[in-house]
Amino acid sequence: MGCSPSALLEHIHRDSSASHEKVLSNKIPSTVVVNLQTSTKGQSMKTSIHKDSNRSLLHRKSSLALTPEDEILEINRSPLEGRYGNILPPSKSPIKVLLVFPYSDAVGEVFTLAAEKLCFDATLICTDNEALEQFQSKAHDLVIIDTRSVKGIDFGTLCRSIRNTKGSQHTVIVGVVKKQVFEKDEKVIQGHLESGFNRCIAESSNLTNCVNELTMLKHGDIRPHSQHATCQALYAALDKCKDLVVVTDENYKFQYMNRACEKLLGFRQEDTLGKTLQEQLVSDTVQINTMGSSLLRAREWSGSLTLKKKTQDTIVTSCKAVPFASGGRMPTHFVLVFDTNFLDTNALSQPRGSVSSLRRGSAEVRSVGSDYLRRSSLAKLNALPLEAPITKILTLLDQAKDFSPGNAQVVQLLEKIEETLRTSELYTSHAKDDLKMRTDEPVVSDLITALLSKAPQPSQSSSSRRSSNDSAVYRPTKSTFFRAPSIIRDLLDTCLSWEFDIFRLEELSKKRPLQHLGMSLFLHFDVPNTLLCDEKTLFNWLTVMEANYHSDNSYHNSTHAADVMQATAGFLEKERMKSIMDPIDEATSLIAAATHDVDHPGRSSAFLSNSDSVLAILYNDVTVLESHHAALTFKLTLGDDRINIFKNLDREVYKIARHNVIDMILATEMTKHFEHLAKFVNVFCTRETDQPEGEDYFPLSLPENVTLVKRMMIKCSDVSNPTRPLRLCVEWARRIAEEYFQQTDEEKVKGLPVVMPMFDKNTCSIPKSQIGFVDYIINDMFEAWNAFIDMPELLTHMRQNYIRWKEFDEQGHTTLADIKKLQNTVLMSPIFPKPSKND
Question: Which positions does UniProt annotate for Zn(2+) 2 binding (predicted)?
Fold first, then answer.
């Protein structure tokens, strides 16, 4: 597996921005977020860059960071943000200016001429009383008062009088002062500002200077004040809205709450300002994290939230959340609208039925918090373009329980059905325990049992944690067989870091990264002792496996295998994994990762089927590549005693190892992606809140669920590219695109069906392919995986890379050549190869 499965390409390569640019529902006025424009966080800079087509592109004002932590994103707004950002109040034409100059001189005349030149509606007044009357009748947008002399008018009193006039809070008042005052006496300027002036400008008799000053006042002061006025009108409208409306900043701190929210929840707006959403309104961290996963990627989110009232009662309501960026690229505010028609005030206050626990003998109420997590996860799966029947069934069962709150027996039966459906193999047949009691002939019992059951699976507990002392076969000792060059050893010291530079290892090892990284990881996890195998055999095995990867593949080569192995090792280091993985599990996970794509031809299974390849015929067009990878792994391993890493294992342990490796390799087939994800979510998102934190909770006690974890682990390792640091992510995207382009070209030459028509090197947008891949495949899977193993850097990199891909797409960096230019300029790093002469 490399990138997005062909089954989803049509979804991925539609304009991926469409899902992010939905207008707010008619319950949310489209101008609800205009007030957020007044934020002064980072301003964008536009720079014209002329490419071969001489087109202009938006560019950053500084180079991109190599890692998400290096700098804050500051670029021009996306179409979504631009649309909201351009919403302005009705422009006042012409702008009304009141000029108050007690004495006629060149300065007053020039300001009047400048106002006329800009087509302002200017009124020149010489007395303070007349100026106040004029303002009260016309409510000017701009007032310029001559403060150079204290004899003409009392400018301080005039300014305060204007400020006391209704509507004046949106008027800009400017004081004209002498040059020497402006340059030498800050106390005078400070006094003016304290009197109510917005700013002061130095006297000038130069017409150009005055025109420039008025122009800057128009765009820098008058327009923001006008926007603020519109803001107030919108807030007034929201206060009349029946739906609950909340505005927070990017840290979920309250900025605004409408009256409907105050009335229903019992809070006052002043009580909530500055407090976080979790502190005041939504106490469930899981719900906030689920919502934030979309908002932090600049995507709208819809779902259910449990709100906490001031009386400590809780209500469940439907929420629509919209991110907004007032400046820069990252969201700066969130707008949340709660639908009052969806309110369920009794959902949490009344239990859904106190039933006997299926896990314990005591009576207990089902955990609503964990139930919500599973429901929200299933809701995400339901929203995806593909749907699994099991997801439908579980949703229907949840609805049935909601309709039967008073019938404890029905609820108990429905929960028992759900518990059965969460098992990993629904149609694996087992002979009933009392079969022999009902059958007089033992031979019949044996026959029926053999026919109805699968081939016997090795017991995980039989020898998983068995020490090598329990066996009489060869026991290896620590040796000094494997010695890598010092520069490689230094790099391998960081091999368990998620930021590990796999491309640097590829370069240093001369495209043999699997040998070096594989041995380092095998020794770290004590694989020689687990497999009762010496280091030389392990090294020979890695050498042969790496030789059977195609080095001419741009993506599916031994570097990809080494990268997947490194990711698997990183996951195995997490405490949750250590608590459930036996040594044989760790060893076979690393083996499966190293060989999961061995002998990959650089073409998809669909291509092989369409071209009637030998492999497609051999495997009947079913799981072609993955079956080949698993079979070849054991054919090579068992075919030569010098590389047979399993030769010293007894039969039972070997069966465990073989089953683990095959199962994990087959799990990388993407056509079953949503099936594996749905199983994982259903099993591991139901932890009961009253279970002690340190205790392994129920699902992990079942061997089949440990298998689910291993499947999810290798799946995440296989497609971890979007969750790596940006420089690695971009290089992997370039490589997979190059390989897909080659397949498309070959299909066209041979007249075969084009499996991925959007991957045409002349028209494909690489950023859009990555955006779609994250939207449809990566995001939900890695959120579920992170919730299980607690590895937040996965989501951090994923979200930051997602934003960067959107930026690249907006800037027009879409082709292979564009990406390579970025790698050698903005993303310059030793890991990126220099463009060839053909680029």
Answer: 597
